[in-house]
Specification:
heterodimer, A: mainly alpha, ABC transporter involved in vitamin B12 uptake, BtuC, 16 helices, B: alpha/beta, Rossmann fold, 2 domains, six-stranded mixed β-sheet
Chain lengths: 377, 511
């Protein structure tokens, strides 16, 4: 009686409901496309073929997905401890400094596989440092991380403008960016991986940081479900009063979790900086930190859900660009609307279909297991 | 006019796969007090919520005064003459009695005319049923017993002929409860019909005319109260014979394990909740702290267990001080031999979303036996859970099941197993059997006595006076944060009841 929704089987909970939400999001998006006078079926066609039609397109989709896996994991780790880190954006941005420094220092003398580990450490350390401050403020001063991380996004943004125009920019160059890295600062692409499936990577920037993202996803799973720290995080996330009872230090966990979250966000910078541009540009994060929130919501904060959710958003980015290219009436902003609808239905209105599905299962369940033992309310 | 007030015919209600009410038939005679008794989760509240229009039945009819009615919401219930006094009062704390009574039943848009009309009507009701309350008193300033009276007046004001009372004595002192019973008797004499829901057998025997027993969503029996006994009702509720009184030998006292001196605790608003409390707890004894809920017992437990900081006083555990006024780490206290079964197992003692086995290590998760370096030793955790499940007969015996899916009694056993099996020197237990079914109560009481016989010092807080009397070797009574008396367990209920009501409360009780 205390639970308003009947318990659903796991496959309905983790597959049917997200899928249904997604379908509705696309239906509504289709209506929007119809409103601007284009054919939604054509749009869907461009979206799918644009994201998966060729090896090159798949490469782009997975390139975006790599970015979103990092930011999605970042948000999810904080979620598990009951913290809402909206600052992945800024933490990723600052994380870029770590990548850039490692590359600028060693790209001419060392091969990529020496620079890469240093860049990983650098990006995670800078991202973690940027998240440490809001974490510390929450733990010791009670300033809510939702507020402080938003503010830290702005601070990060201003700081990077300063660094990229005054400090890291080579002399005599107009663009606010670092110099282009030499071979040591360039991550190899994953052509071999694509060619296993008989696909050609073409010009797409799909690179080894994708493998790092998968590794990070596995690491997060181990952290959350198999370590003492993860146990403490989850206890605090589910019930702060139980954590206090168990002697779990709230302040300590808050700070550590925010740093892990920031570190994961920071590692996102590897993908665009070392994997695509081979230099750090102004505003290279491009909202990936915020997309990470949607990815974490949709993936139920579980790495196994975050990877497909990240690929879905990668598809929206890549396929969306294709729609904007093929259909003049649809601008890039339309794509943002579609992404927004996915976030709305998958995140905010997550429970919309739950009662109806619960009822449906209940009536099927009653018919088929009429004789089954039932519990009291 | 028949002499039947309400008849329920074949009421059926499911929530998803949970079949809360199965084909319930119930006949309540006019002008009687009809008890409905059953364990937590037996479906009593669901049935009453259907009657009061919170839920719709899937099947079945409700017949009131010979007419079949549909009750689609509480307004329809009120229109059919049904009033409900909820377990948790539905009163606006900063409104006066009068404002609360007329709330939702205002007769015009202009409040002044409604108020004067309501005042006249309230006066009449108070006189007719001897329910004196000052209509201009603010609810927050009234004691709980009077707040409940306002709830009853609210129902009468809406011309209820049938009153449903859901666990009405949970928050009352024994004298307040007696007073409530007298009021109910008067209402009955005036021809009102009363449905009285409770899980306390004694109350059923004291005031009802007829009693219906629910078990697992079914109505298993209806008896005339005169023709039944506590033993029979208990057996009907649980479905098997139960021992209502625990056997226990004389206490074998050891040295002082826990010593509390002049402990003072304030809550977040600075109100003193525990006022200069001192007592000793010896190995091999159970000390019970009696008192009506909210008189400082919870804060006392929290301060001793390191969850809440005290403002003054000393606590010694095994002769060594606990820094109760400074920083206390509950984890350190566990290492020093303090076990704690908290009052609120849903939010404090357990993480309901965890698997059973995960809750089995809460607070002990830092111990080497559950870890491989920084990793959890899932095998050891699983094995530990399985052992406890067997020893404490936790059902269903599945350590991977989410804790929220266990019944209250089994959840409590998970907490008890965790805290007891560690073998602490001192075990503090808050409300060991709140929301626990009768069958599990028997088991839990036996375990607590066993622990005491093995030389553990047990500090027990409970709002169930029967439980305190059954288990304790000494009883300390708290009122308004102070210790107002210490008695041995032979003290009569009346004597303890008066202490629980406090010195100031005595006048109130005599009213």
């Amino acid at each position: 009686m205390s639970n308003p929704y009947a318990k659903l089987p796991a496959w309905a909970e983790y597959i049917l409901i997200p899928l249904l939400n997604l379908v509705v999001a696309f239906l509504v998006a289709g209506l929007v496309v119809l409103l601007v006078g284009e054919n939604p079926l054509d749009a869907a066609y461009y979206m799918i073929t644009g994201a998966f039609g060729r090896g090159e397109y798949i490469g782009f989709t997975l390139y975006y997905a790599t970015t979103f896996i990092f930011t999605g994991l970042s948000v999810a780790v904080a979620f598990h401890a009951g913290l809402f880190n909206i600052g992945s954006e800024g933490q990723a941005y600052i994380g870029g400094i770590g990548v850039a420094l490692a590359c600028l220092w060693l790209d001419k003398t060392m091969p990529w596989f020496v620079v890469f580990p240093l860049a990983i450490i650098g990006s995670a350390a800078f991202g973690a440092m940027w998240a440490f401050l809001p974490g510390w403020l929450q733990a010791k001063r009670g300033s809510h991380v939702v507020i402080t991380t938003i503010m830290f996004n702005f601070i990060a943004s201003s700081l990077m403008v300063y660094l990229l125009t005054k400090v890291l920019k080579p002399l005599g160059q107009m663009a606010p960016q670092t110099r282009t890295f030499e071979a040591g600062g360039q991550l190899p692409k994953l052509d071999w991986l694509m060619s296993i499936f008989g696909l050609n990577l073409g010009n797409s920037p799909f690179n080894v940081s994708f493998l790092l993202a998968l590794l990070a996803a596995f690491g997060v799973w181990v952290l959350i479900w198999r370590t003492k720290l993860g146990y403490e995080m989850r206890t605090m996330g589910h019930s702060p009063s139980a954590a206090r009872y168990a002697g779990i230090g709230e302040a300590r966990i808050t700070i550590i979790v925010m740093m892990i979250s920031g570190g994961l966000a920071g590692m996102m910078a590897l993908n665009p900086i070392m994997g695509e541009q081979y230099r750090m540009q102004l505003d290279f994060v491009q909202g990936a930190g915020f997309v990470g929130i949607a990815v974490a919501l949709m993936g139920r904060s579980h790495p196994a859900g975050i990877i497909p959710a990240a690929i879905l958003f990668g598809m929206l980015y890549q396929g969306g660009a294709e729609i904007a290219f093929e259909m003049p009436a649809i601008s890039r902003d339309m794509i943002v609307i579609i992404q927004g609808l996915v976030i709305l239905f998958a995140g905010a209105l997550e429970n919309m279909f739950r009662p109806a599905i619960g009822r449906a299962f209940a009536s099927i369940g009653r018919r088929s297991v009429a004789a089954a033992q039932t519990r009291g309310a | 006019m028949s002499d039947i007030a309400i008849e329920l015919r074949g009421i059926d209600k499911s929530f998803g796969l949970v079949h809360a009410n199965k084909n319930i038939n119930l006949t309540v005679r006019k002008g009687t007090i009809h008890g409905i008794i059953g364990e937590n989760g037996a479906g009593k509240s669901t049935l009453m919520s259907i009657l009061y229009g919170f839920y719709q039945a899937d099947k079945g009819d409700i017949v009131i005064d010979g007419k079949t009615v549909t009750i689609k919401d509480p307004n329809a219930a009120i229109a059919s003459g049904i009033g409900m006094v909820h377990q948790h009062f539905m009163l606006v704390e900063n409104f006066t009695v009068l404002e609360n009574v007329m709330l939702g039943a205002e007769e015009s848009q202009i409040l002044n005319t409604s108020i004067s009309k309501a005042r006249v009507e309230l006066k009449r009701l108070e006189k007719e049923y001897a329910l004196e309350v000052n209509p201009d008193a603010l609810i927050e300033q009234l004691p709980v017993g009077l707040q409940q009276r306002v709830e009853i007046l609210k129902a009468l004001y809406r011309r209820a002929d049938i009153l449903i009372l859901d666990e009405p004595t949970g928050v009352l002192t024994p004298p307040e409860a007696d007073h409530l019973f007298r009021i109910l008797g008067q209402l009955k004499d005036q021809g009102k019909t009363i449905i009285f829901i409770t899980h306390k057998l004694r109350e059923i025997m004291a005031i009802t005319d007829e009693v219906s027993v629910m078990r697992r969503g079914e109505m298993v029996a209806t008896r005339k109260t005169k023709e039944t006994s506590v033993e029979e009702l208990a057996e009907l509720m649980v479905g098997r014979r139960v021992l209502l009184r625990v056997e226990k030998g004389a206490a074998n006292l050891g040295e002082v394990k826990l010593s509390v001196e002049n402990l003072t605790v304030r809550d977040g608003r600075g109100v003193t909740m525990v006022d200069n409390v001192s007592f000793n707890l010896r190995a091999g004894e159970i000390v019970g702290i009696a008192g009506v809920a909210g008189n400082g017992q919870s804060e006392l437990l929290e301060a001793i267990s390191g969850i809440r900081r005290a403002v003054g006083g000393k606590v010694l555990l095994n002769g060594k001080p606990i820094d109760v006024t400074g920083h206390v780490d509950p984890r350190e206290l566990r290492d020093r031999g303090l076990g704690h079964v908290p009052e609120d197992r849903h939010h404090v003692g357990l993480v309901l979303k965890f698997e059973e086995a995960e809750n089995g290590i809460l607070g002990y998760h830092h111990e080497k036996r559950f870890l491989n370096g920084v990793f959890l030793n899932t095998k050891a955790i699983q094995a530990d859970a399985e052992e406890k499940i067997k020893k404490y007969d936790i059902r269903p015996p599945n350590p991977r099941l989410k804790t929220a899916n266990f019944s209250g009694g089994n959840q409590q056993k998970i907490v008890l197993a965790r805290e007891m099996e560690r073998g602490p020197d001192v075990l503090i237990i808050g409300q060991p059997t709140r929301g626990v079914d009768v069958g599990a109560i028997e088991f839990i009481h036996k375990r607590i006595i066993e622990m005491r016989d093995q030389g553990m010092a047990v500090l027990l807080v409970s709002v169930e006076l029967d439980e305190i009397r059954a288990l304790s070797d000494r009883i300390i009574v708290m009122f308004a944060g102070r210790v107002v008396g210490e008695r041995d367990p032979d003290a009569t209920e009346g004597e303890l009841g008066l202490l629980m009501a406090g010195v100031e409360g005595r006048k109130e009780a005599a009213e």
